[in-house]
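Morning. Coffee machine broken again, so started the prediction first thing and wrote up yesterday's gels while waiting. Chain of 265 residues, entered below exactly as on the submission form.
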Amino acid sequence: MSRTPVELREVCMAAAQAGARVLLELHDRPRELHFKGRIDLVTDADRASEEAVLRVLRERMPGVRVLAEESGESGTGDDCFIVDPLDGTTNYAHGLPLFSCTVAAQEAGAVVAGCTIDPLRGEVFHVARGQGAWAGEKRLQVSPTTELVQALVCTGFPTSHREMLPQMIAAFGRFTELSRGSRRLGSAALDLAYVAAGRLDAFWEWGLHAWDVAAGQLLVEEAGGVVTRFDGSPLTLAGGEIAASGRGLHAAMLAVLRETSISSR
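Came back before lunch.
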């Protein structure tokens, strides 16, 4: 892309802000719902937000390759912007105020910049590789917690591949037993931003896509945390699973995932 990570962060922020404005404008209006699966929703707001994001990317980076949740892949080149125009669609459709717009930039297979915005709270989580993770002008740091008994843990459940639910629920139950509490908020992008901010101590989920986790992965890493697959191997954006936490808690989280057989399927 011939841009520095800081410059790419600015592009991600501008694009995510455009999408977030659309989500905020449409938030209180009646929803037009469609189904990509039995329970996998897409709304008119997803599509309108994505178009706003793509418009900014086309203006700022003409011809760049984009991977977007609703419209798929476009453009050419090895480098890519990864877009989720509305992460937390089910929450949004039901009026639950936990959702986000997230955009990341990838170069040579690695995420180098990103931005996740919570439109309702006006929180802008942004990151550039080597420059730290930020919420507005506040630098983020993952939680120093090292014991599960002191940890607030978060997860999500897949909208497809429901055959995995028994293992997911078993892991959720075990984390609930061992930790201070478990949560399921409904927006993986926000979950990862909250891990970066130290609001959540750990996050794990199976069945995710690159657009769900691209910006959040870098936010956590730049805030001093660790992001891997369930077995501790390096994260791959298309790998469908993610475990994120502070360094002192990661081994304990992976041990629970092994114990409940979710990492050995």
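Residues 37-41 have pLDDT under 50 and may be disordered. Going to sketch it on the whiteboard this afternoon.
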